[in-house]
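Need FRG domain-containing protein's 3D structure for a figure. Predict it.
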Amino acid sequence: MVSTASRRLKKSGFPNPSKEKYFEYHADLIKDARSYRYGQDSQLSDTGLLIDLQHYGAATGLIDFSEDFLIALWFACDNTNKTDGEVFFLNVQTNEFKPLDAQEEESKYSKSKKEELFTQEDQLYYLHTNFKSTARIFAQKGVFIFGYKKIDNIESIAIKESHKEAIRQELKQYFNIEEKNLFQDIYGFAQVNNTEHKYDIKIASDYFQEGYEEKNQEQKISLYQKAIEIDPNYYRAYYNIGTVYDELKEYQKAIDAYKEIIGIKPDYHFAHNNMGIDYNKLKEHQKAIDAYKEAIKIKPNHRAYYNMGIAYSKLKEYQKAIDAYKEAIRIKPDYHRACYSMGIAYSELKEYQKAIDAYKEAIRIKPDYHRACYNMGIAYSELKEYQKAIDAYKEAIRIKPDYHRAYSMGDAYNGLKEYQNAIDAYAKAIRNEPDLIAHSEKQNWRELETWVNNLPDSPTKQQNLSVLNQLKGN
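Structure prediction for FRG domain-containing protein:
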């Protein structure tokens, strides 16, 4: 790899310039540039001035590199000459290269010592771009190699000409790497807006990026639709349209967007999974199950199995729900939600001990899972293990003191014939969770009522009767 200075000297009759001629060329170039007062406004050092000259097209001994592989890839995909490109890799962490930063350069090559610039003729310099130089150099994360010696320890990756346009589009779409961001000066702006660049021609990824950054939901959809008008197979735009409709709770429109994706890319499991979620929200549970099955066929994952379990539960197919939850747990053993939901399904099948085991596993994974404690209390009550039920309810309240539903532990106290404790718990429950009254109306309150009626007349008895009447729906 040789510099543009070497190529210029060759064209000028010096095919193999001596070291003296090589460095004389650079001294003359810098002297000539300074005679036009270039670099004086910003007080550039000789090295900084040389870097500017290189960037604006002068033939120098500097060879441009970028510290960012993706930026280097963008330049390798320049297709002006319709040929294959290359990305070059250079390891500068060797003794062959001498690093030079701004502070070192300014002190070593001050204006009083300009004649000493690059006097180590056999040395290759690695110049980092924290010089006082142009914005475009910083934008391009530019670094430079300078020296008379030929660079040998270099590797490269070939870029096919047919791949260049697609690579540049992806660099723009996903990393915001494009011409106007790499050439951040008036010269670069002018180049982007010259006759070689079409006016206001946006590609699909431009509208996609604008849609991603837009805050207004309706505008987001409009921008994604513009991307699709340009590229009808832009499935990611359809996916984002679907997620926006999900946020707007327009689930059928979201489903329609996901169906478009599946028509373009049938193996996009995210679309099947999201479509299943939306069908569940529309209470079309069988369609949700079908969508989850398709997602699982493409890529088995715990969320799809879990969501499918929820759909089966909605259809009261609890054993199928349990089987789905087990698959979710097999893939992700610490998935506490699946353990919890499996406990609910077991309770619906009246398999209360299995429900308790599932709740315990959920609590083991997530010790502050108050809902699991509460439902475990219900399961213990069904098994008439009332003290264990009370302990579970109390744990739910300890974790979440305002979880008033757990005061339905009154049922357990009633089972233990601790009637005053039962009344006190019911009073707290119906005061904070009025919907518990509807549940309580179905119960047989004969024993509790007998106990209250046998109490001696007192304010406590009257309070207890009031609670009892509320429980009975009177």
